[in-house]
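chain and backbone:
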Amino acid sequence: MFAGDIRRTRVSRMRGFRHWRWHLDEMYVKLNGEMVYLWRAVDQEGEVLESYVTRSRDKAAALTFMKKALKRHGSPEAITTDGLRSYAAALTELGCRERQEVGRWANNRVENSHLPFRRRERAMLRFRRMKTLQKFASVHASLSNHFNLERHLVDRQTYRERRSAALAEWQVLAS
């Protein structure tokens, strides 16, 4: 409910900004002792755009994830991925293969965005259902985007103003 409102306002503000660089990655998540894959798209500022849970790590899963992200957020200028061949196959089918960039440390932005999710996952003592994992991943991404104010980039006064604005918006949405 409130995460959807936050996502809608954030996406509507960023729709006109087409110079995006996306970072795509997948991570293993344990679900009742079985490994599933959480596909994630992160923009150049470190905000999570899309999360998608699948049981497989193949071209079909990558294609479904990318179609979902492209439909919701538009087309990026560049897509940075790791060396997984499923990305190349899916991008070829979508006609975006020339936008793909693969580099040794080029995908660190999305790798570092996994860390808050891992911390919260550990605190929750894992997941039991795929639907719960999908819902948690999308809500967690929306809320972390809303409250991640990158305080190392701004002075203390600006950080306080932004933090109080985020908390005020949160209270309006939660009430």
